[in-house]
Amino acid sequence: MDTTDRYAAFRALHRSGAPLLLPNAWDHASAAALARAGFPAIGTTSLGVAAAAGKADGAGAARAETLLLARGIARLPALVTVDIEGGFGEGPKDVAELVRELATAGVVGVNLEDGRPDGTLTAVGPQCDLIRAVKEAAPELFLNARTDTYWLRAGGERESHERAAAYSLAGADGVFVPGIQDEAVIGGLAKALDVPLNILYAPGGLSPRRLAELGVRRVSSGSLLFRAAVQHAVDVAREFTRGTVGAQGLPTYAEAQALATAFDGHEGTGDADGPGDATVRG
């Protein structure tokens, strides 16, 4: 599909009753594996991207890594939205330049947050300036405006409503409020907004089905998959020291290798029935 169709397809995934369930990747292999598994859209996790590079999340340090990853995974047969933290820049001009690069690479959306490294929130006015700059630079790009009112405990329900309304008015295509598990608050925000509401999935918390019933249009995994992968690696390492690692469920070397080239016309040589034998190309 052409660029216009990709933007439209991504917007269409944010529908009532069947919200977009968005897994978040942190490198090319994880994104390729998710695309191979059939997920229609994939996000990136800023924590995963930054931590994998040995950098801090939310500090604006992983701009180069984020852009490099986006350029690579945008060619996958999935719609890609990228977490750009606070914009990786000093102001609207810098953020607009980054967004133009991402749009040129084939990315269909970005997340832009108002939380600062010191635990405070960017003032509403300057944040709206960033939102307007993004939309001017790439009007069709789906801008998911994240407010950390709950995540940083820097506000509450009233602050969330005020910021969500302001960001929507400034041109945001969706609003992301991570950290909420209160059904009344979520339902109230979903009802008040005229753009899709995005909520972060919390293990043991509200299910995607319940969030959909409350009016949520997008549910993100955030850093969950990255953190789970790290823990699983440690668990397997411990099994390795005991000599108890089983091969069941693990990709083969060839299957893992194929993730690097599966969608660029240079297929790997995995097992005939496994992921290494993909027939889908981007």
Would you kindly provide a written description of the structure presented here, covering whatever features stand out?
Helix 5 (92-105) packs parallel to helix 6 (124-137) and helix 6 packs parallel to helix 7. The protein has 282 residues and is α/β, with parallel strands linked by helices. The longest helix is centred in the last third of the chain and has 19 residues, at 224-242. Helix content is 43%, strand content 12%. The model is unreliable at 265-282 (pLDDT under 50). It has helices at residues 3-12, 28-36, 46-52, 63-73, 92-105, 124-137, 157-170, 183-192, 208-213, 224-242, 253-258, and strands spanning 20-22, 24-25, 41-44, 79-83, 109-113, 142-146, 174-176, 197-200, 218-220. It is built from eleven helices and nine strands. The chain has a nine-stranded parallel beta sheet with strand order 1-9-8-7-6-5-4-3-2.
Annotation field: number of helices: 11
The largest sheet has its strands arranged as 1-9-8-7-6-5-4-3-2
**Helicity level:** 40-55%
Shape: globular
Report the mean per-residue pLDDT as an integer. Answer: 91
Report Rg. Answer: 19 Å
Into which percentage range does the β-strand content fall? 5-15%
Class per helix and strand makeup? alpha/beta
Report low-confidence residues grouped into runs of 5 or more. Answer: 265-282
Write the layout of secondary structure elements.
Elements: H1 3-12, E1 20-22, E2 24-25, H2 28-36, E3 41-44, H3 46-52, H4 63-73, E4 79-83, H5 92-105, E5 109-113, H6 124-137, E6 142-146, H7 157-170, E7 174-176, H8 183-192, E8 197-200, H9 208-213, E9 218-220, H10 224-242, H11 253-258
Parallel strand pairs: 1-9, 2-3, 3-4, 4-5, 5-6, 6-7, 7-8, 8-9
